[in-house]
Amino acid sequence: MLNIDQPPRVEIRQKERKEFAKSFPPHIGIGAPEDTLQSCFGLMPKPPHKDVIKYNLNANKYLRYLCELDWIHPEDQGRKFVLSYSLADGTIKIGEIPRRNSGIKEGKFLKAMLLQTPESDPNFPTYFTPDRFYIGAIVPVFKHRFKIIGCDLFVYRYMSANPEKFPQEVIDNVRNYHMREGNLKDELEMAVREEQAAETRAQLAKIGQAAVAEPSAMERCLTALDVVEGSASPPRPATPPATTDRISYDDTLRVTRQSKPTCDEVLPLKGILKSGLARDDHQKVVCFTGPAGDEHREAKSKAVTYPPGQQPHFVEDEYFCERYKDPDATERAERRSHDICPYEVIPKQAIDTGVGAAKTDKELPGYLGTYGVDCKEVPDFMRLSPDAYDRVKKLRRDVPEISPAAARVADQPREPILPVEACLEAPAEATEPCAPRQEEDVSFACPHPEPRLPCCDPDRKE
């Protein structure tokens, strides 16, 4: 503005501060390294973050391996262990398989914990993962060396389902082990069937490509008529009706009313007309072409009765008495349990009489009372007790039954009955106190006097 040149700006140099590298302090040996590391991130340490989704998806899922101890001392030879890797939190636990007369207490060898690899940094440790477990692998555990010699079939299933988590060499190693053990027979059969099905599909595809599609019946018909695509004629107009006569709705009703029905006998429906006679405008008719009204009704089965003395003996049948009950006994028992009239009181002339007719006296439709009387007013002695059938059943059960042996004895001829004089003047040897007892019919024999002291032995006469 004033044609004055400004001098160059003055550059102020600032001193560069040295940055010191931040490093985490070494683990003090108290607690897990993850817990100690949280103290470096803030004044109030927080618990380490846990993968809850992984824990929920893999809860109670373990990869189990059979291990043997890489022994040095002879007493450790033959000791076998089960190494279980938890897929939920990555912990490893080891338990020893019991042996007889080994002198070593079996059970838990290592509790569930995160196992560090030999090459890991103590401050930032790395832990064992399933991709390092295979047949023949050595797993060092606190100065002990375990050699994996087997695994469950679930381990191979898990590896096959998650091939991105395992090297191919580990998957092949585990598969070869189960092939030797014969645990993959089903997989082999399924693979063979799938391969055969693939070959069959390939052969059918080749045959289908070589085959020429035969024309259908419609295509042959169009070819015979020389019909080419796009040469079809326009649609044919609609054919006019043969007649133009039209009957109105009223005329159809009149014709229907005046025409005679096709059936021979036309009977009016009862209840439509008070007189019961058909009129000209009566259009509701019924053609009875079937049997008479009462022929379809089946005759009611009568209860089985027996003459006196010929009723069969009691049969130990649960439903024996049910056969002799009335058809409506069950319904009446249910109504009786709800304190409702067990018998249906039928009105005699209360409904039949028309309006304004003379009032008739109430008649007794049964011994339960007149029409309109509540059954609660019926005396108790007129009600059927609920255990009536059970009591009859008990009485029938108490009837003695004559045994076959007694029936045979009754058919034998009986000895003649002695006259009354023979009982009054019986011989002395037959009535004396020491007379020998004989088997006799007590119902028709003379009374036998009982012996009195002094007396001899009745079975041995001296």
From TrEMBL:
Residues 59-163 form the DM10 domain. PROSITE patterns: DM10. One of its GO terms (cellular component) is mitotic spindle. SMART domains: DM10. Keywords: Cell projection, Cytoplasm, Cytoskeleton, Repeat. InterPro entries: DM10_dom, EFHC1/EFHC2/EFHB. It holds the Pfam family DM10_dom. It is found in: Cytoplasm, Cytoskeleton, Cilium axoneme. GO terms for biological process: cilium-dependent cell motility; mitotic cytokinesis; mitotic spindle organization. Its main location: cytoplasm. GO terms for molecular function: alpha-tubulin binding. PANTHER family: EF-HAND DOMAIN C-TERMINAL CONTAINING PROTEIN, EF-HAND DOMAIN-CONTAINING PROTEIN 1. This is DM10 domain-containing protein.
